[in-house]
Amino acid sequence: MSKVYSLMFAGVGGQGSLLVAELASIAAAHAGYDVKQTEVHGVSQRGGSVETHVRFGGKVYSPVVTPGEATAVIALEKLEALRFAHYVHPDNGVILVNVYEIIPGSVTGAAEVYPYQTIEYLQAKGLAVKPLAASQIARDLGDGRMANVVMIGALSALLPIPQTSWQKALQIRLPTRYLQNNQKAFAAGRQLMAASPVSGQALTVQGGK
Predict the structure, then answer these.
(1) Does a structural domain hold residue 11?
(2) Where do the DSSP E strands lie in 58-179?
(3) What gap in Å lies between CA 155 and CA 119, rounded to an integer?
(4) Measuring CA to CA, which of 48, 152, 199, 207 is 20 to 30 A from 9?
(5) Is residue 18 within 8 Å of 38, Cβ to Cβ?
């Protein structure tokens, strides 16, 4: 348990990045890890970028993930993957990207300059990038808002946290009326990662203090 895992969750206001960060924190704590979490809300109420840091391990002294340290960057939208890619550990980290695009409505000409080729660009930089059709999967399950839970399900397949702890986190954090559907979304994400794992990524990064 001495290793420290550093997670960076990034999304646009309303996508639920804070919720899935809380799920990761609860699951890690249930599994017996020391956990620290912090978030930057920014202008989330206007659809702006939201980032949340989660670190867990044997002993964690700071919740803040520093650039180049993240075990995983979980991006709920393609632009956010590009915005926070520099946080991932270049050798032992992975970027999980929901292949979903939100064009900033407040930016003139945003549709013309949006980085549609984000995934290809990051892969060309030598980073381990895993594109996931989380929004489509969530819609197929009946509610596109569950894309964040699909993403945390995928992440769960990469971390040393038992399934029982993840299920406990879902039960603690989600209202009963939404629990069953979100459990399906979580399972779909986990199965998606199992069917197509991230090659070469053992997630062995040491976090520091």
Answers:
(1) yes
(2) 72-75, 94-98, 129-132
(3) 18
(4) 199
(5) no
For residue 128, give the DSSP letter. -
Residue 153 lies in a domain: no
- Answer yes or no: are the C-beta atoms of 33 and 92 closer than 8 Å: no
CA pair distance 35, 25, nearest whole angstrom: 6
**What is the band of 105 on the pLDDT scale with cuts at 50, 70, 90?**
low
Q: Dihedral of CA 132/93/172/16: which sign? A: negative
- Give the tens place of pLDDT for each residue, 154-202: 999 999 999 999 999 999 999 999 999 999 999 999 999 887 777 544 4
In a domain? residue 101: yes
CATH code of the domain in which 112 resides: 3.40.920.10
Structural domain containing residue 10: 4-133+160-174
DSSP state of 68: T
**Whole-model pTM above 0.90?**
no
Rounded Cα distance, 199 and 183, in Å: 26
Residue 13, domain member (yes or no): yes
Q: Which two tokens stand for residue 39?
A: 């978030």
Most distant pair of Cα atoms in the chain: their distance: 49
Residue pair 43/104 in contact by the 8 Å Cβ criterion: no
Using the structure block, give the residue that is written with the tokens 């867990």. Answer: 56
Whole-number Å distance between alpha carbons of 122 and 133: 17
What value, to the nearest 5°, has the Cα angle with vertex 95 and ends 89 and 99? Answer: 165
**Number of domains making up the chain:** 1
